[in-house]
Specification:
Length: 434
């Protein structure tokens, strides 16, 4: 058995054993990478290689956008934006039968898109909507299922931190601007599919129709949420028009969110230390995941794993449809036990050469991998949003699984459509020539 094969086996075996043992993902990645490099100490400069690759992995101007968007999301979360968006969504669709289910989904889409965080959307929208929905006859587990599944849409609809991470992992073959624009239609499709599931359920349960809203109330709620919604146009529009880069847009988002919070009188000077501390903690976790994942990605290149995987899949399976299906199934499984950021950084270098060899655009694949991992965020045993949503609803995870299944099926159907119909993702980027 060659040293290259032994190294690959050691890398994956040690990683999964450490993960199964309960070691945090970042530590599992770093330890497995270090052990494999020690095995190759005769041809690798030394153990300092891990530290060097971790440092150079986060030495990127594009990654500066992440701490800024995290801070902007925290400011939005503390700034009372969620209530304004919920009221506006309720004015739009709340009068339909079972309308609060649609309100939850629409509000999560809007808030997730503005904050760029699925966790923020799940906690902010869920904390407000759970009690309201229960009062309207929605069982608490079903309310939690709606909140959990809809919170992921903000990771597809820009601005999105994970799309920035994918742009880094793709080696520059997919631009942040193109990814941001490509995420709109898939994100909206996911939201609509979740609304269809909610509509079928409410029809079976005979949930009563909500009260109608006068045009004056709709206008009032729109006016109150207008400046929050305007942030989407400013940030994404500015990037598309070349006014600023994604990193500069993130800084603009922080300033805009702070001004809104001050104007709404929901953020004061005494709130800033706790907001900054919370943002710093989140950023530190994300950056540590990124730097250890980048070290492992470098090791993949060193061991020629992407080339081996490309050759194996293309030689073994000749049908592109089956290859895309295998990749999707693999990513769905990966998403159940691995956080989104390291999964993107680790598996993009492995699968991107395969799909590009088959003619798939890197931007299109970026949307596919993100949607796959969004589904993983809602599934046990590691699904972050699953635990956050259940915690916000104050129920056990086991009670959420059954009502969550139809929503997961709807997301998988959208994933299949996006995978095999490239124009869904690429229509807008090609229209804007990105």
């Amino acid at each position: 058995m060659s040293i290259e094969l032994i190294s690959i086996l050691l890398l994956f075996f040690s990683f999964f054993v450490l993960l199964a043992y309960g070691l945090p993902v970042a530590y599992s990645i770093g330890t497995a990478t270090t052990l494999t490099i020690l095995l190759n100490i005769a041809i690798v400069p030394g153990i300092t290689t891990v530290a060097q690759r971790m440092t150079t992995g986060i030495d990127s101007f594009a990654l500066l956008a992440i701490p800024f968007f995290v801070l902007a999301g925290e400011l939005m979360n503390r700034g009372g934006i969620a209530n304004r968006l919920i009221n506006f969504a309720k004015s739009l669709v709340g009068s339909l039968p079972g309308g609060l289910g649609y309100v939850n989904i629409l509000a999560a889409m809007l808030f997730g898109a503005i904050s760029g965080s699925a966790v923020a959307a799940a906690s902010a929208i869920g904390s407000v909507m759970t009690e309201r929905m229960e009062d309207e006859g929605f069982p608490r587990p079903f309310s939690a299922a709606i909140n959990i599944s809809s919170s992921t849409t903000g990771l597809l609809i820009p601005p999105s931190n994970v799309l920035i991470v994918y742009a880094l992992a793709s080696g520059g073959t997919a631009s942040v601007a193109a990814l941001f624009v490509a995420g709109y239609l898939p994100g909206i499709m996911v939201g609509v599919s979740l609304m269809i599931v909610a509509a079928i359920w409410t029809r079976k349960q005979s949930i009563k129709r909500g009260k109608g809203v006068k045009l004056s109330q709709l206008w009032s709620d729109f006016r109150k949420s207008f400046f929050s919604l305007l942030m989407l146009i400013i940030i994404v529009g500015g990037i598309i028009q070349g006014v600023f880069t994604a990193t500069e847009a993130a800084a603009v988002a922080v300033l805009y969110a702070l001004i809104l919070g001050v104007c709404y009188r929901t953020i004061s000077a005494k709130d800033l230390p706790s907001i900054l501390l919370s943002s710093a903690k989140t950023t530190a976790i994300v950056m540590f995941l990124i730097c250890t994942s980048m070290a492992m990605s470098w090791l993949f290149s060193f061991e020629s794993i992407p080339q081996l995987m490309t050759g194996f899949l293309l030689d073994t399976v000749s049908n592109p449809i089956l290859i895309f299906l295998i990749i999707n199934m693999t990513l769905l499984v990966v998403g159940t036990f691995m956080d989104m950021t390291p999964a993107i950084l680790i598996f993009t270098p492995i699968f991107l050469p395969v799909v590009t060899e088959l003619g798939m655009d890197p931007v299109h694949f970026g949307i596919i991998i993100v949607l796959n991992l969004c589904i993983g965020l809602c599934t046990p045993p590691v699904g972050t949003i699953l635990f956050v949503g259940a915690g916000v609803a104050k129920i056990s995870v086991s009670k959420v699984i059954k009502p969550l299944l139809p929503f997961l099926i709807a997301m998988i159907v959208v994933l299949i459509l996006i995978t095999y119909f490239e124009s869904i993702s690429m229509f807008l980027p090609r229209m804007f020539e990105l």
